[in-house]
């Protein structure tokens, strides 16, 4: 067998057995939602049960909940089936990645932090621990924002700029000395940057509180935080609702995050994004000569966004609706309906005009523009962030 034929056989075998690859198979298991009930069906059953309770003079908020004993028995059966050594190895891997991410943030090495957070967010927890998956998705998005800021910082400022020189000296000491924080020169440079450099202050992610603390203490009550990220062949979504006012301990217990992923075809998504970018360029050129936008160009963007909405947002919208609006989007269930939506997008979802999709525009509110939402019936999409919530 020739070398070319042998190599082609290996490529076909690798593609055929992709699902059997150990990291891919492990990630598929933790994100497998086939055993979970359909959120739309669960929502309909809960609405029917609440209506029945109302007709019979009972409390409508009392719906059937799965007994905790059943959950414990299922978790015990699952743990007995898995190998104990594999559980120890998985816990050790998670702990090692967390420590690596912390150290990378302390040294402002965002590339290493991104690699650690990407594995923790996409391959470590999945649906088994939704809060951990949501937090690591937020940290991953924040490190990418800092990486883009570093790139822009180097492009816009000259090499002899004072702030850039100080950062170079700091990096030089960190690379040459095992314990640079003990050097007086290092301390002096760092103190100056912390006091005078907004860019250096922005990189101090290790000084920020946890995602849970940010949701509980720094966001208004009943704020729904949604993060959307394209990773490889999937779009990942994470959401959590900040509880209503009350004791902090009780509010922390009320946090019920939702995470999900949906398979996409990167080539098709990129093609749609390129079509949107091309149409936007045509609109910009036209605005130079005419103050009005060609209706045909606007219609082209609407059609492309609708196609993306059908393939990307519709499966995730059912999960969001079934998790956070158990009585329906337009039901005003006291204490559980979100009043503000904070949509946190990455670069791809921003280019895809996710905020203009039907799930946000029609079902939540009639949003006329990104900067001036129209506060009518439904929710107020108060902010559209490109990056992180921290």
UniProtKB/TrEMBL annotation:
Name this polypeptide is given: Uncharacterized protein
Species per Swiss-Prot/TrEMBL record: Symbiodinium necroappetens
